[in-house]
Design goal:
Blueprint: H1 3-17, H2 23-30, H3 34-46, E1 51-54, E2 60-63, H4 76-89, H5 96-109, H6 112-124, E3 125-127, H7 138-150, E4 154-158, E5 170-182, E6 185-192, E7 199-202, E8 206-211, H8 225-233, E9 239-245, H9 249-255, E10 262-267, E11 270-277, H10 280-290, E12 294-298, H11 300-317, H12 326-333
Parallel strand pairs: 3-5
Antiparallel strand pairs: 1-2, 4-5, 4-8, 5-6, 6-7, 9-11, 9-12, 10-11
């Protein structure tokens, strides 16, 4: 495709997305002169495209009815950005199927030189929430996506320094497994050379990912990389809270984010919930908020905090008159889900 023809395809795309664009606007977007922009519009008319022009201050070029411009041509970075957006949309309720089919169509429509990169992104990413803007290097992101798909080890540089705790960067060999988005960032789930555990890397602190052409021995991959990431990044506290919940683990997982606590199935009708915190009063309020029947396993002080909270609620909200004892009032206040 010649430079002139490629520029004219861009003109069609711009007029489709921004009707009323002037010659000056086209020139600014395309990096040409207004004269060249007008010639491109004239060339499109000669090719049979209907391009209407309105004079005056608020005038400009507009594609006429029935004009169907060809699909936009994406460069490598634009294609990667589109794939990231579609993968993020796959985590939105109701858009899973649409995002998956759109990404498949995007990969199919791309030139061969871009398909490998996009197929790797599609196969190795998992979005638990739409990521916010970060300073991740697109080249590093793509290299890691390709390595995840090919199961090829990489040598990467991990920058641990930040504004508050400077520390030297470190190069390491690692076996990538999957890219996961959470908390507004992208993470790599990987296993370092010689390690027996999987860990996570924040991609905005990773640079210079170089393929090594080999596969490092690793333990069995995590069944749920997103859950591994949640456990690895969950805040730690002085108190380890452990309670038995008298309902199914499936229900508790619907109510409790993996970023807050671990849920372990005990049997069909109970499970164990664990989390760390520095504030047992908060833990007591949070457990009451869940509205579940729980037995405190640890620490013993949490049992007293729950008792104190219940006593305060009864004293604060008990009825001065009416049927029932304070204990019966408490039963009405603290409902339980089973």
């Amino acid at each position: 495709m010649s430079t002139a023809m490629g520029r004219r395809l861009q003109v069609l795309t711009l007029l489709q997305s921004s009707p009323g664009t002037t010659a000056a606007g086209l020139a600014a977007r395309l990096g040409t002169t207004e004269r060249t922009a007008r010639r491109d519009v004239a060339a499109l008319r000669d090719l049979g495209y209907r391009v209407d022009a309105a004079p005056g201050r608020y005038g400009g070029y507009t594609l006429g009815p029935g004009t169907s411009p060809p699909p936009p041509v994406l460069d490598a970075d634009e294609a990667l950005a589109a794939a990231l957006g579609l993968r993020a949309a796959s985590g939105v309720h109701g858009l899973d199927a649409a995002a998956a089919t759109a990404l498949a169509k995007l990969v199919t429509a791309l030139p061969t030189r871009h398909r490998t990169r996009l197929a790797a992104v599609a196969a190795t990413m998992r979005a638990t929430e739409p990521p916010r803007s970060r300073d991740s290097d697109p080249a590093t992101f793509t290299a890691l996506a390709l390595a995840c798909r090919a199961r090829e080890a990489v040598r990467l540089t991990h920058h641990r320094d930040d504004a508050h705790s400077p520390a030297p960067s470190r190069a390491r060999d690692t076996q990538p497994h999957q890219l996961v988005s959470a908390y507004g960032r992208w993470y790599l789930v990987a296993c370092d050379r010689g390690s027996t555990t999987w860990r996570t890397y924040a991609l905005d602190r990773v640079t210079d990912a170089q393929p090594l052409g080999l596969h490092l021995p690793t333990p069995h991959p995590p069944r749920d990389p997103a859950a591994l990431l949640a456990a690895a990044t969950r805040p730690r506290g002085r108190h380890h809270v452990k309670v038995r919940v008298h309902t199914s683990s499936d229900l508790v997982r619907q109510l409790v984010s993996p970023t807050t606590a671990d849920v372990h199935a005990d049997d069909e009708h109970s499970c164990v919930l664990e989390l760390d915190t520095d504030d047992l009063d908060w833990a007591a309020r949070w457990l009451v908020h869940l509205d579940l029947d729980v037995d405190v396993l640890a620490p013993p002080a949490l049992h007293q905090r729950l008792h104190d909270l219940g006593t305060w609620l009864i004293a604060r909200y008990s009825l001065e008159s009416g049927p029932g004892s304070p204990a019966e009032d408490a039963d009405k206040i603290v409902g339980r889900r089973r």
